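Milestone 3.1: sequence recovery, worked example.
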């Protein structure tokens, strides 16, 4: 478990690097017809993560130097580089700040922002067509499968991939915070059943 500190405390500490990442998500009216057992589902939630250049999954965002720019302006700049849209981010989008245990000297700030379906669509297009880091730092944006298949597929398989730093824990706590999954569903997501293909 990473040590949590406040955003304000983080900004008073000297000699640390800061990284800001964000979960961009929203409702989509697309139907997952026939793909998942819940046939009545109409709304699906789109959650954006990325395949990083190093082969790890993580959230969009990056290093910010608070002596040159605010954390939120820096995060918005990183989003412009990585997804091709300078999504505005405010302090009200901030959810947690941690002293990174995997990377000493690094403070990680995490944000969440809900977007409209049209904005998410625009972002997915821009991430390929406009983002200067596409194919370099970022190999592609991915949607998180927020459902459970009978063989353990869906979210449990997704979580079995490798994630940068504590981004996997950030995803799970965000799913709970945004009430996209219950505590029970999160526990289920972390257990890949024995009859799984993995
Ligand atoms: P450069 O422009 O190449 O420096 O990359 P960047 O500014 O986009 O930085 P990056 O996104 O790689 O993030 C910097 C550091 O933050 C990484 O080395 C990781 O230690 C950490 N990190 C990256 N992604 C995440 C994430 O989703 N969550 C958390 N908690 N940490 C992350
Ligand atoms: Mn096919
Ligand atoms: Mn970047
Ligand atoms: Mn980055
Ligand atoms: Mn950067
Ligand atoms: Mn860069």
């Amino acid at each position: 478990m990473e040590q949590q500190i406040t955003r304000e405390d983080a900004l008073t500490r000297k000699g640390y690097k800061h990284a800001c990442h964000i979960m961009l998500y929203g409702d989509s009216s697309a139907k997952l017809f026939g793909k998942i057992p819940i046939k009545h589902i109409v709304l699906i939630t789109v959650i954006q993560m990325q395949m990083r250049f190093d082969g790890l999954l993580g959230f969009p965002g990056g290093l910010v130097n608070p002596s040159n720019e605010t954390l939120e302006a820096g995060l918005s700049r990183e989003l412009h580089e990585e997804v091709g849209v300078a999504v505005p981010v405010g302090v009200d989008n901030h959810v947690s700040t941690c002293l990174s245990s995997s990377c000493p000297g690094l403070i990680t700030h995490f944000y969440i922002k809900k977007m409209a379906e049209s904005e998410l669509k625009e972002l997915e297009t821009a991430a390929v067509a406009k983002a200067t880091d596409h194919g370099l730092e970022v190999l592609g944006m991915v949607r998180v499968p927020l459902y459970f298949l009978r063989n353990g597929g869906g979210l449990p398989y997704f979580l079995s991939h490798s994630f940068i730093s504590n981004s996997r824990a950030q995803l799970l706590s965000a799913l709970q915070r945004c009430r996209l999954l219950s505590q029970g569903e999160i526990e289920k997501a972390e257990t890949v059943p024995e009859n799984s293909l993995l």
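The longest helix spans residues 71-83. The chain has a mean pLDDT of 92.
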